[in-house]
Amino acid sequence: MKYLLLINAGEVDLSDGGAVGCEPEDWMRFDKEIQDAGVVVASESLADLVTATRVQVANDGKRTVTDGPYAETREVLGGFYVIDVPDLDVALEWAAKCPGSRGGGSIDVRPVAAFPGA
């Protein structure tokens, strides 16, 4: 079963571009562990928060484009892993090991939808 681990960093220190409580070594160690386990289907880190652009389309079709970062949220989407594991319990174990789950961050765990014929 495939699951998406969506990494939402907690408090971010914009002066150094990093999430509080997560050191680069923690991420490198976790990435090596999850890759070595052979469960990773795909993974990516996202570029710095200041590169974000939000697009919203109103019911009348008018498009609004806003450059980040966004003051209305303290949570920062940092990246993701798609993993292939036997069940939700195993996916939750990997999510708990992820450095992004610390320092006020969280990991959203969602099954990847399987569509017939896809």
Beta-strand percentage?
35-45%
SS summary, helix count: 2
* Largest beta sheet: strand ordering: 4-7-1-8
User: Biggest sheet, in brief?
Assistant: 4 strands, antiparallel
The low-confidence parts are none
Quaternary state reads single chain
Q: Kindly state the percentage of residues in helix.
A: 10-25%
Instruction: Please state the CA-atom Rg, rounded to the nearest Å.
Output: 16 Å
The average pLDDT value, as a whole number, equals: 86
Secondary structure class reads alpha+beta
Tally of strands: 8
State the shape. globular
SSE order, one letter for each helix or strand: EEEHEEEEHE
- From the N-terminal CA to the C-terminal CA, the straight-line distance is 15 Å
Brief rundown of the structure:
With 118 residues, this protein is of the alpha+beta class. The protein contains 2 helices and 8 strands.
Note down, in words, how this protein is organized.
The chain contains two helices and eight strands; from the N terminus they run βββαββββαβ. The chain has helices at 24-36, 88-97, and strands spanning 2-9, 12-13, 18-19, 40-45, 53-57, 63-67, 76-84, 106-111. Strands 4-7-1-8 form a four-stranded antiparallel sheet, with helices on one face. It has a two-stranded antiparallel ribbon with strand order 2-3. The radius of gyration is 16 Å and the shape is globular.
